From TrEMBL:
<feature type="region of interest" description="Disordered">
    <location>
        <begin position="1"/>
        <end position="21"/>
    </location>
</feature>
<dbReference type="GO" id="GO:0046872">
    <property type="term" value="F:metal ion binding"/>
</dbReference>
<keyword id="KW-0464">Manganese</keyword>
<dbReference type="GO" id="GO:0016791">
    <property type="term" value="F:phosphatase activity"/>
</dbReference>
<dbReference type="GO" id="GO:0032259">
    <property type="term" value="P:methylation"/>
</dbReference>
<comment type="similarity">
    <text>Belongs to the damage-control phosphatase family. Sugar phosphate phosphatase III subfamily.</text>
</comment>
<protein>
    <submittedName>
        <fullName>Protein-glutamate O-methyltransferase family protein</fullName>
    </submittedName>
</protein>
<keyword id="KW-0489">Methyltransferase</keyword>
<keyword id="KW-0808">Transferase</keyword>
<feature type="domain" description="Damage-control phosphatase ARMT1-like metal-binding">
    <location>
        <begin position="26"/>
        <end position="371"/>
    </location>
</feature>
<keyword id="KW-0378">Hydrolase</keyword>
<dbReference type="GO" id="GO:0008168">
    <property type="term" value="F:methyltransferase activity"/>
</dbReference>
<dbReference type="InterPro" id="IPR036075">
    <property type="entry name" value="ARMT-1-like_metal-bd_sf"/>
</dbReference>
<dbReference type="InterPro" id="IPR039763">
    <property type="entry name" value="ARMT1"/>
</dbReference>
<keyword id="KW-0479">Metal-binding</keyword>
<dbReference type="Pfam" id="PF01937">
    <property type="entry name" value="ARMT1-like_dom"/>
</dbReference>
<dbReference type="GO" id="GO:0006974">
    <property type="term" value="P:DNA damage response"/>
</dbReference>
Length: 400
């Protein structure tokens, strides 16, 4: 789905420029993450050796991507071949497309800690302790308590607050927190706000189907679920399909286990939060809320390359809400687009109207007006793209 035009006007983002954001992810964030994972589990020498090797290989600008280990199943290898391992494995981590290299890093990290087994660490999510700590944080509990007050507000106020809760929940991402300075220096701001379009696509009682492609677990997934409950309860959606990752990915990305944890967290809460949890639990039993774990959710590729079955699934949506930074990169393509490229241009291939709810944590951005881009660049320098202080709600409100 990539055209020569894309390559010329918007080259793919790579990590081979020292000082750039992607270079820093490979050189600084990934080592910090490996250290955090080591500290969180009593892994044995085998896992530590594998983590050492991955650390050496993936942070050395002269190092090359090693293949998946022999234990990786035939099917998995074939899948990664379809996703481009033949082209990238054996070459530099830094010269590969950033999206490809970063995704492969997570796949290899899971291997290093024995996630794909066989062995005692099989199926043990190396990011689970961080996800759980976040769910149990005082902030997470305080967020739930605000629902009692919100329930007394007019429905429109509730809708706006829940949409914004889901949007800004994306800032709680754990990977992002690894190197972020806690006190932001700029005020949070919505750089594009198509929320009126979003609501106009979901008239109550029209039998709408909403797909929500989740991003992070914990303090992002909980507000996503609250938004889903609102959509179902007020008939903006007759049916919601929640897409999560089939296995751990990008530190805090949500898996089915994380959905279960979030639902239990809600169900066990008092007041409105508890009632919401019970309603969502029932919605799964009646099929009004269902889960998807397509393997392509963990692919190192943009959605423009999605397989036919996933395309057909998304085509059933009245609206597909894609959460977070990584989904944004995959939706528009992880490319150095001019920031003023209209949002419908790189998303024209998507089989249903897409809505991106994203805080900005990496370089790629489209759909801004010239004045906004100019003001941000002159007042903040290039970091406005990556600090997570800014966000967008962008909607392409037409079918392809
Ligand atoms: O959780 P989100 O919002 O998808 O953010 C993930 C982002 O974090 C990073 O992995 C950097 O830590 C980006 O490269 C990536 O796009």
């Amino acid at each position: 789905m990539t055209t020569e035009l894309d390559d010329a006007s918007a080259p793919e983002i790579r990590s081979n420029t020292p000082g750039s954001f992607p270079y820093g992810v490979l050189r600084e964030r990934h080592p910090a993450l490996i250290q955090r994972v080591r500290n969180a589990f009593p892994y044995g020498p085998e896992q530590h050796r594998a983590l050492d090797a991955l650390l050496r290989e993936s942070t050395d600008p002269a190092g090359v991507m090693e293949p998946l280990p022999a234990e990786a199943g035939e099917g998995d290898r074939e899948q990664w071949e379809r996703w481009g391992s033949g082209e990238h494995v054996g070459r530099s981590w830094f010269d590969a497309p950033f999206l490809w290299a970063e995704s492969y890093f997570y796949r290899r990290l899971l291997d290093a800690v024995g996630y794909f087994g066989p062995g005692p660490w099989q199926g043990v999510d190396p990011f689970r302790p961080f996800k759980q700590a976040e769910l149990e944080s005082p902030e997470a509990h305080a967020e739930l308590a605000t629902l009692d007050r919100l329930a007394k507000e007019p429905q429109e106020t509730q809708a706006r607050a829940l949409l914004h809760g889901s949007l800004w929940g994306n800032r709680a991402d754990l990977g992002f927190q690894l190197t972020r300075t806690p006190a932001g220096t700029t005020s949070s701001a919505l750089l594009a706000d198509d929320s009126d379009h979003l609501w106009s696509l979901l008239p109550p009682g029209a039998g709408n189907t909403v797909h929500l492609v989740a991003d992070n677990a914990g303090r992002e997934l909980v507000p996503d679920l609250l938004l889903i409950d609102h959509l179902l309860r007020h008939a903006h959606a007759a049916r919601v399909i929640l897409h999560v990752k089939p296995h751990p990915y990008y530190v805090s990305d949500a898996t089915p286990t994380d959905v279960l944890d979030a639902l239990n967290h809600l169900k066990q809460a008092r007041g409105e939060a508890g009632e919401t949890g019970t309603r969502l639990w029932q919605a799964t039993a009646t099929g009004h809320l269902s889960l998807r774990t397509h393997p392509f959710a963990c692919a190192p590729l943009p959605y423009a390359s999605m397989p036919d079955d996933l395309r057909a699934d998304f085509a059933t949506a009245t609206l597909t809400i894609l959460k977070g930074d990584l989904n944004y990169r995959r939706l528009v393509g992880d490319r150095a687009w001019p920031a003023t490229t209209p949002f419908p241009t790189p998303t024209s291939y998507f089989p249903s109207p897409p809505a991106a709810l994203r805080t900005l944590k990496s370089d790629v951005i489209v759909g801004l007006d010239e004045k906004t881009e100019h003001t941000l660049t002159t007042t903040e320098g290039p970091t406005w793209r990556t600090t997570g202080e800014h966000a967008v709600i962008q909607v392409r409100h037409t079918n392809p």
